[in-house]
User: What shape does this take?
Amino acid sequence: MPGMGGALSLERSRIVRAFHATLGHQLLIVLALAVLVVVGGNVLRGIELRRRTAAGGARGELAEATSATSEPAPRRLLRIGFGLLWLADGLLQSQSAMPIGMPSQVMAPTADASPTWVQHVVSFATTTWSAHPVTAAVAVVWIQCGIGAWLLIAPRGALSRLAGGASTAWALVVFVFGESFGAMLAPGASWLFGAPGAALFYGVAGVLLALPEARLGAAATGRNLLRGLGALFVAMAVLQAWPGRGFWRDHGRLGAMVASMAATPQPPVLAGWLRAFGTVVDAHAATVNALIVVLLVAIGVGLWIRRPALLRAAVVAAGALGLAVWVLVQDLGVLGGLGTDPNSIPPQLVLLAAGALAALRPSAQGARVAEPGVRLAWTRRLSASPSYGFRTLAALGAVLVVVLGVAPIAVASMLQRGSARALVREAAGGSPVITDVPAPRVGLVDQHGRKLTLAALHGDVVLLTLLDPLGAGHSLGVARELAEARRRIGAANRRVTLVAIDDDPRRRTLAALRAFDRRAQLSDAAAWHFLTGPLPALRAAWAHLGVAHELAAHGQMPARDDVVWVIDPSGAVRAVLATEPVPATPAGRASLEAALAALVQNLLAD
Assistant: This one.
């Protein structure tokens, strides 16, 4: 057992090395695709040169067709802007911490603060990722880089519009599973913190790019886009102004957010700006919040007004406020923790600029796209223009990169079922199982009637098990062993919390839990929580832990494996140990206590 801490560190290092190796191997595939695209482009160029030698009319015909249908500037801005954003997101996903940190540090925290049904939806993604961390992390890198390249490279027509559809589809996946519906159902949701989620704006941009090109060159489309953003600003102002949400009081929610961003590693200049702004917010929270609410309402109303001068003022004000929030609250989106995207402000600004360009400067762009012009079949354009042919081949290569990401994660999602139960069965075999998966999202009440979630215990090492509140033998022994393991740690035990979940659906009263405390001599124990709740909530907790648990027909509980889950301060399950078949002897109890104490000490030392 002394080597347990080394085993945990080695497992984390092994996953990171496997991630880098897999990413490197698949990068070779992507480079091979790039070489094929270059070779194909050169072949098309040779064909085009031979045709020009024979007859020079094809190039002029193609030039006329291309001139007659030039891409509208608003669409070009959206396509390039969101293509670059997707590429940036893909590169951020290649961080070494992603395979292990994505479920516990990005997906689970927001889901834990959301309603139970959201937790159940997101748990599918966190379980899949945790069961296949390398496959999932690599897949997301290639999906997002592939979509970004596809948007940037694809020429005009159906292939470019299809890139918009792919962008919307993946944005919805990220919005639901990665952002827990944009965190809109979590307490404290605010436009300042990223609500309604960056992925929502990626999805809107994808829908616009999937429309016929003439639509994005029209003033009406630009005005509708600005009005939609205006309605969003007003809705976010109402959310920001809602009383009782912690934004109006000094040292409230906004000040805490800024302080947490300032504490993360970043350039000293940015940290200084954040600390200065945090000082102002802590001292004048109500004034700052009132100013933000007024600006959001003014911008929202301004974006609805048709007068160009007021519309321009609203666009400029939205850009200025957005940049200030991006720097002073969102910390550029990538500096405050495990950043997976630049947060919600950059995609909003790209949409805002595209809408303003279409609404204020429609000129001849929309009309020119609608002109009949000379339209060539795509096969003729492919052979007659080396530029068009090269971009078509490159876009198809980007599609293959997206498939390179989608296929493995699709297979992994079908194979992940039962992984939590398999983990319990493996641990019940005797030796501790070293793992790194998110802790289950548990929201129950303790023996004193206080609601508790495991997310609220982040920062502590948690020893979690299931106990029968009326159990007279094994359950009492396990509870005492957990308490003794905590005592062995010494002064650091203030960072250790013991949690038990009621495992008997017939006995769910708080009185039964408190009676158990007295029998186990834990009535006065610090950091001890015995949790219960409605039967549906208990069943959800058991399912997340991989424990099958129902009453048999004759009213008896079925046999199950007894284990302890060791959860680190970040909220990840780092080990699972069996409490059976530990011998019910002093030596057996001491071995379990020593094993738990050694694991906890190593986690506290990380």
In short: The two ends are 17 Å apart (CA to CA). The mean pLDDT is 80. The chain has two domains: 4-414, 419-605.
